Amino acid sequence: xxxCDFIAEDLQQKILSNHxxxxxxxxxxxxxxxxxxxxxxxxxxxxxxxxxRGLVSRKRGVGSFVNRMGSASGxxxxxxxxxxxxxxxxxxxxxxxxxKVRSVVHAFSVIQANTIVxxxxxxxxxxxxxxxxxxxxxxxxxxxxxxxxxISIIPGLSQEDVEDSIYQFIEHKLHLSISSSHSTIRAxxxxxxxxxxxxxxxxxxxxxxxxxxxxxxxTIFEYSVTRHTEFSEPERTVKLHKRKSG
Length: 246
Hints:
CATH class of the largest domain: Alpha Beta
Radius of gyration: 19 Å
Shape: elongated
Largest sheet: 7 strands, antiparallel
Strand order of the largest sheet: 3-8-9-10-7-6-5
CATH topology of the largest domain: Chorismate lyase
GO molecular function, one term: DNA binding
Protein name: Transcriptional regulator, GntR family
Helix content: 25-40%
Strand content: 25-35%
Keywords: DNA-binding, Transcription, Transcription regulation
Order of helices and strands: HHHEEEEHEHEEHHEHEEE
Pfam families: GntR (PF00392), UTRA (PF07702)
């Protein structure tokens, strides 16, 4: 086993055994070099692997922190994906199959992040985009999304981008690499607004996916809650245990 793989496995076990708890700051690169007797290059490779697994996030100029494995809202009736997921935008996914995707934007604004959003995004304070939109495939209701993104990380997002594809804007216009996500899945009842937007009856169960998404360098760029209808296939929008080549 390579040294970087050994370090990643050792730190993962310490995280899963609660030696390092959610939101704990991990030892610095210099400290890890001394602990494991390796170079910074080896430590960086190990930390990058932990980021890809969804266990760790990096905060610029601060350090590396353990991700929460559960819900940011504190609800416990959920299932946690403890493996990293690679993600792609809804529109990109369905366009590959020649399926038409349409978005209806209910809200797009800049707000001051509250405590829950700050915690999920790994920031102390600041302004974020708030986006609420519903997606349709071939005019069938697919999902309603509630999304928060730090303006400092995703600058220049427009109404046109929100109506089209946010992920394509991030990758093609900002030239940022979207890497992985950590998701919590649960069943919830549709709200009155969701009943209207998605054309479902009162108290219809929806599949909720609460997600924190990461750029290639481990920076958190998105916190979202997406509620899927019976028509949707949310398991196809996240891919488990796969890595993009190149």
